[in-house]
Amino acid sequence: MSDTTLGRENAVARSASNLYRAVWRWHFYAGLMVLPFMITLAVTGALYLFKDEIDTSVYSDLKRVTVAQTKVTPEVMVDAALANYPGTAVKYLDPATPGSSAEITVASADFGKLAVYVNPYDGSVLGALPDRGTIMWTIRYLHSLKYFGDGARMVIELAGGWSILLVGTGFYLWWPRGKKGVVTVRGKPKNRMFWRDLHAVTGLFAGVFIVFLAITGMPWSGVWGEKVNEWANGSNFGYPSGVRVDVPMSGEHLDHVAKTSWSLEQARLPESSAAAGTPIGLNRAVETFDRLGLHRGYTVAIPGKPTVVYTGSVYPDAASQQRVIHLDQYSGEPLIDMGFADYGLGGKWMEWGISVHMGQEFGLVTQLVLLAACLGIVLLAVSAGVMWWKRRPTGSLGVPPLPDDPKAFRGLIAILALGGIAFPLVGISLLVMLALDWAGTRVMRPRFA
């Protein structure tokens, strides 16, 4: 072998080694950024996968009833709820199954909003909870960081973007490069090799789900999700193109009166014609929704003003069965009737992804697969922490070493730039981290074991 050939091979090896160091360094940074959030999201997400099962079990005295032959009308149920909890009825939730109770949302100046549970067969009031006060609503708010204000939605976007970076750099570090890839766990728990292999093997399985969950979680983010929603549904009064909206429209949004799908957060409510006569009432509205084939378990927003409509909306486990119908409260005529089939291609994919993300699509199979993924994410984070602890230098954070040739960062930075363009908030955070990394290396070079 000539000296020229040997020199070229050495140069290639050094270049590969430098790129490996650069990727390893940013894999470490990505882990610092998101692993604490990933553990929280994985644990709360795993619980939320079984929201119906958990809530039905915990609140069985409120949510389950004995099936009988005849039912009382929705207005009788509303009257019973108001007799026990005076106020204004604002929503009626149709029983999803024969053994389910009805839920009436009552608003009062004294106690805020309450979810009052009523037996649909005899009209008896079973009890009440604060509106969205169940354990699963608490878990959902923890998962979405809603308890921490609107700024937390930006944290979701950062965590999602950095999670994708974590998976991409991790896959590069695992890639065999001419050797056998690690697909089994070697050694024993006292050895660092055991934890490194456990981390790599778990990452191969969980990484695919991390990317999927990060992308499908982005619709709830503060910058990307909001802007994409405006772009996708900002025209035609917030409805997908092709949906008939040639009726008087109000300035109120559907999401403000009834929790709706991501695709319809910008959708505006049509107006009822107050000159049309006497309101049809809740009984006739429910009869109309049933006749139009609205999926069981739908919610009816009860109009509280002369120009407001009856809105029936349902978002079952299967995204394809989503549907929203607005009825004129005087004539009972459907003003807008739209469902999943009316969404654009992007909206359909987004709604389907959200449905899978929440463990709804395909039933128990999805729940169990995503449960395994959530457990894998926790194991991934734990193994990363143990692996770092075993190799950390005394008195140092243990940041992986800088490459000998700074040019090794060029390719990595180009990839990061593409991600920053797709997710602007993540791009800004990448620039901040680059600046901090550059400043840190000028002050002190980290020591390694």
From TrEMBL:
InterPro entries reported for this sequence: PepSY-ass_TM
Segments passing through the bilayer: 26-50, 154-174, 194-215, 368-389, 409-436
Keyword Transmembrane: yes
Keywords from the UniProt entry: Membrane, Transmembrane, Transmembrane helix
Domain of life of the native organism: Bacteria
Keyword Zinc: no
Name listed for the protein in its UniProt record: Iron-regulated membrane protein
